[in-house]
Specification:
The complex is a heterodimer of chains A (183) and B (562). With 183 residues, chain A is of the alpha/beta class. Chain A has 7 helices and 6 strands; from the N terminus they run αβαββααβαβαβα. Chain A starts with a helix and ends with a helix. Chain B is an alpha+beta fold. In chain B, strand 14 and strand 15 form a beta hairpin. Classes of the chains: A alpha/beta (183), B alpha+beta (562).
């Protein structure tokens, strides 16, 4: 019985390893963290970056004009929240425009872009999917808590854009591949 | 090969277990029994109440045990640092009684205590997050008052508090609902280390299936069991609570706690199609406006119009608009301001308002009328009823999820942010004054049948949506003859005096199109949206001698019975 349980763990670990295609460290510090969708998930990514000892500043509403602001990598905490957008006094369209301009300017400046989605299945839906579809294809690397990819949206977007995607089983596990992306 | 097969079976079993923990279970929320039912926002809390009834406690004993347990099991919604309202009608009481344990403004509070930025918002969100948002908590005083005055006396404080202590020690399950709330409120939680220590793992949220233990809260509950309300309102604990609020920018003092008073009030009453509605007066607006809305709708044949139809939904929207217009103008703590309660609940006044409803056209926005001519002479909710017809409805809250975010270090409980329920600028009936209670929408309500006998206990969390949720469930039961569970599950609608109509996603497309054709600007929300509250109700079928408990799948509600 113990061997069987051990085998389950081995299988699960193997499955996790298969879903992970983490690239070698490619991003430079410091990072600038922003939200795309104004969900509270940016708070979790902030903690993950701090734990991973990645120097960063966070500004959920940073605009293209403020880039690079000393940063060399742009981290996008992706996930839509109508409550968050309302509190920030910004419409969905305006948020998409801000994100597009931000990404364009980051590219012009040669910054690396990492998209991270930690909200899981609960942070999916029409609103979030608009932001996910915008950010994942234009990123250099994407990380997702895997239950958000039950329908394969992240896998499809990453595969079409030919970028590495790492799927983790829980929020706490997202810190390792995130920190490992930084030189 | 055999081993490999076993491994696959185990993997499949593990997968099934994980799947079983996923949301939204629409089944198994209701319960029925002959002796007693408790319907609360957590199944474990409902069971706590049932266990007390089984041990010989009465409905109040069960309610108080459930209330303390909910403070542990649903810490984002209510607890020792909050307040609320309770309506009790024991079978041997001629009239129901309302226990108002709403928070009060601290003595140093001023109408202009909140400062506004150029963007028109309160600077640093200080009315919602931090010490300035904290009102003087009333929960422990209110719950113990009820236990001492209406409990069976067979259950002492220690017995009633024991289940809450046990849950705090062994830990509470992180459900889908709780996990998502912690994630959403992580910024607020991490701002205060004592709160982050309990509800995060080094700053990251607990996740689905994990357990959150709170031994400090267990110790605080034990102290309450031993010393009663003095364990909170006097001595070292009062000083610690005040210091925690002040360290977070607040103005609370130990004297504010020592001076806190529970208010015993006469309920506001009305009728709806022969049924008697018994609910809470100010400092809650809820009871009065539920009666007002039902009075308006009584002028229409809602049953004939049918549940969820465009006509019925239109009538609801307009009735809500009219009631909320009056609420904005007249409602406040009646101990400080003269509120035209009788006029607002008057059936002739409702006729005047009903006449303003054009069934062929949306009014768009409503303005307050004048109820004074008719003056003659918000959270978690649970309901308890037993076979003898003893009825208890309790709604309690720390306001926003995780309240002010401020945990009193070493005590395990979070302080409320109910100061945000005042009008935040001077010059309004609802402006801040020392000792004043902020206006609430909490609406714990009892319904008596046309013979005046116990029929239903009902209430909900959900801020201003509470009023609509409670009224709609009552109408679903009385007008549409739905079971209590169906009446809770039915899609809801909400509207303020002006602005968009909020419609739950499961409403029919015909209803949506019909409303738009009448000129309503409708925002369609999620299919099962916690925005619309979380109603927990018990209905008594006297003839069949069966109690039916209904609970809301929009949150973690589940009833228990025996």
């Amino acid at each position: 019985m113990r061997r069987a349980i051990l085998s389950v763990f081995v299988l699960l670990a193997a499955a996790a390893a298969l879903s992970a295609q983490a690239p070698a460290a490619f991003a430079e510090k410091p990072a600038l963290l922003t939200s795309v969708g104004q969900s509270a998930d940016i708070e979790m990514v902030k903690v993950l970056l701090s734990r991973g000892k990645v120097d960063h500043t966070a500004d959920p509403l940073v605009t293209a004009a403020k880039l690079p602001g000393g940063a060399k990598t742009l981290v996008l905490a992706v996930g839509g929240s109508s409550k968050g957008l309302g509190a920030a006094g910004i419409s969905t369209e305006a948020e998409i425009d801000r994100a597009k301009a931000l990404i364009k300017r980051a590219r012009e400046l040669g910054m690396k872009i990492i998209a991270i989605h930690v909200g899981g299945e609960a942070r999916r839906g029409t609103l979030s999917d608009a932001f996910i579809s915008l950010c994942v294809p234009v990123s250099d690397y994407a990380i997702v808590v895997e239950d958000a990819d039950k329908d394969g949206l992240f896998t499809k977007l990453a595969s079409q854009a030919k970028i590495p995607l790492v799927k983790v089983d829980k929020i706490t596990a997202a810190g390792v591949p995130l920190a490992a992306a930084f030189k | 090969m055999k081993k490999l097969f076993s491994v696959f079976v185990l993997v499949a079993f593990a997968a099934a277990l994980i799947a079983a923990q996923t949301p939204v279970n629409l089944y198994g929320r209701a319960a029925q029994g002959a002796k007693g039912v408790v319907a609360a926002a957590k199944p474990e809390a409902s069971q706590v109440g049932i266990d007390i009834l089984k041990k010989g406690g009465n409905a109040v004993d069960a309610a108080i045990a459930t209330a303390f347990a909910l403070g542990v099991l649903e810490p984002n919604a209510s607890g020792i640092g909050g307040g609320g309202f309770m309506v009790i009608k024991m079978a041997n009481m001629k009239e129901a009684v309302v226990i108002d344990f709403r928070e009060t403004a601290p003595a140093a509070a001023k109408p202009d205590m909140f400062k506004f930025g150029e963007d028109g918002k309160v600077i640093d969100n200080a009315s919602v997050v931090g010490g300035l948002s904290v009102g003087v908590p009333g929960e422990v005083a209110g719950l113990l008052y009820a236990l001492e005055n209406y409990g069976s006396k067979k259950m002492n404080r220690e017995k009633v508090l024991a289940p809450a202590v046990e849950w705090a020690e062994k830990g509470i399950p992180v459900t889908v609902n709780l996990a998502s709330i912690i994630q959403s409120e992580l910024g607020k939680i991490n701002k205060y280390p004592a709160t982050a220590k309990i509800y995060t793992k080094d700053g990251l949220p607990y996740e689905l299936g994990e357990t959150i233990k709170n031994p400090d809260l267990a110790a605080t509950l034990r102290a309450i069991a031993k010393d009663g309300k003095d364990a909170i309102y006097k001595g070292e604990m009062a000083e610690r609570i005040a210091k925690a609020a002040r360290d977070a920018g607040g103005i609370l003092t130990a004297a504010d706690l020592a001076n806190y008073q529970v208010k015993i009030r006469k309920p506001v009453t009305g009728t709806y199609r022969g049924y008697t509605i018994v609910s809470v007066p100010p400092a809650s607006s809820g009871g009065t406006h539920v009666i007002q809305i039902l009075n308006i709708l009584e002028n229409m044949d809602i049953a004939k119009m049918g549940p969820g139809t465009p006509a019925t939904t239109h009538a609801w929207i307009e009735a809500l608009r009219l009631a909320f217009a009056d609420r904005g103008k007249y409602m406040a703590d009646a101990d400080f301001v003269k509120v035209p309660l009788k006029g607002l609940a008057n059936k002739d006044y409702a006729k005047v308002l009903a006449a303003k409803i054009d069934m062929a056209k949306a009014m768009g926005s409503a303005t307050a009328d004048d109820p004074t001519k008719f003056e003659s002479g918000s959270t978690t909710h649970f309901s308890v009823m037993d076979k003898d017809g003893n009825m208890v409805a309790v709604t309690k809250s720390i306001n926003y999820f995780f309240g002010s975010g401020v945990t009193v270090p070493g005590t395990g409980f979070i302080l409320n942010d109910h100061m945000d329920d005042f009008a935040l600028k001077p010059g309004h009936v609802q402006s801040v004054e020392p000792g004043k209670r902020p206006l609430s929408s909490m609406t714990p309500t009892l319904v008596l049948d046309p013979d005046g006998q116990p029929f239903m206990t009902v209430g909900s969390p959900g801020a201003t949506r509470i009023i609509a949720a409670v009224a709609q469930v009552i109408s679903n039961v009385i007008d549409h003859r739905m079971s209590v569970q169906d009446s809770i599950m039915a899609p809801r609608v909400f509207a303020m005096a002006s602005g968009q109509v909020q419609l739950e996603g499961r409403a029919s497309i015909n209803t949506l199109k019909g409303l738009e054709a009448l000129g309503h600007n409708v925002n369609v929300r999620a299919d099962w949206d916690a925005y619309f509250g979380g109603v927990h109700a018990v209905l008594f079928d006297r003839k069949a001698k069966v109690l039916y408990g209904g609970a809301d799948p929009r949150r973690d509600g589940q009833a228990a019975a025996f």
